[in-house]
Amino acid sequence: MNSGIPFPTWLHPEIFSLSVAGFDFALRWYALAYIVGIIIGWRIAVAAVRRPNLWAGNKAPLTVEQVEDLLSWVVLGVIAGGRLGYVLFYGDGQFRADPVSIFRIWDGGMSFHGGFIGVCLAVIFRARAYSAPLGDVANILALSATPAILLARIANFINAELWGRATDVPWGVRFPSMCISPERQGCTAPGEWFFYGDEPLRHPSQLYEAGLEGLLLGAIILFLAFGAKWLRRQWSLVAVFLIGYGLSRFVVEFVRQPDAQFTSPTNPIGWAYDFGGWGLTQGQALSLPMILAGLALIIWKRRAA
Description:
Layout: E1 14-20, E2 23-28, H1 29-49, H2 64-90, H3 94-97, H4 112-130, H5 134-144, H6 146-158, E3 177-178, H7 182-185, E4 193-194, H8 205-227, H9 236-252, E5 273-274, E6 279-280, H10 282-304
Helix pairs in contact: 1-2, 1-5, 1-6, 2-4, 4-5, 5-9, 6-8, 8-9, 9-10
């Protein structure tokens, strides 16, 4: 019998928690992933603008101070866009019944595609404020985005969430449940991992995405920026990011468990868009425009050259 790879139950979603003046505070791996990822991305962006020889005309489009200001707006775009995107793309009616829950981001529910739209709006807004070429500012964001994606996907794995479909591959993982209500769930202690005993082995799709969307795509973009000097071409890294992320997510969706609101006895595969025997998951449907936009950028830049 294939036992798969054991899930690291010694890891907990919360790194630590404490109470101060009646307020409970907890630092989670997911939050830390974004914090560390954004800091790494910021340092990459700063390194790029400090090397004028990487840019057309040997002049960086932003100063170090403007990169730091842009970071603040990007964080806001990620949070606001990610949450609203989840509500619009994946909400299953709970937000109509309880509109206030839209603002309870600590309860979970963030959409990458929604966060991406929020970041795009932030970049457009700040590029105009800096009087900087939008294509260059967008390249800076494409260059610095993948560390946060890589670490966030690893945090998804630690949280035992967004796992893959059932499988019998040797590297399948049996994901546990978190004990929240011992009486209701039949578990021992709140805050501990436990197994019901009938969990199937699943694809660790979070790690697939970490490797493709974060590590591989990030390495390619770093090489193109600092090795091949693609920062001299406006929108070049944006096109690579859009196509690379879109294709990675589209492929992994085949082995990623779809959200519960899209599955049913008549739709076990989880097609959000069914075209008579075949279809697209919600993640694939949201990734296709990214791929097409990246291809359109390449065609547009080639015609303009």
